[in-house]
Design goal:
The chain has about 20 residues and is mainly alpha-helical. The protein has one helix and no strands. The protein has one helix at about 5-20. The longest helix is centred in the middle third of the chain and has 13 residues, at about 5-20. The radius of gyration is 8 Å and the shape is rod-shaped. The model has no long low-confidence stretch (mean pLDDT about 75).
């Protein structure tokens, strides 16, 4: 999940925001 696809990046951003930036 390291920039393998735009979807993966979206999931990463979603998780980061949900976790409070981490």
């Amino acid at each position: 999940m390291e920039n393998l696809s735009p979807i993966a990046e979206a999931i990463r951003h979603y998780k980061l925001n949900a976790s409070g930036g981490y």
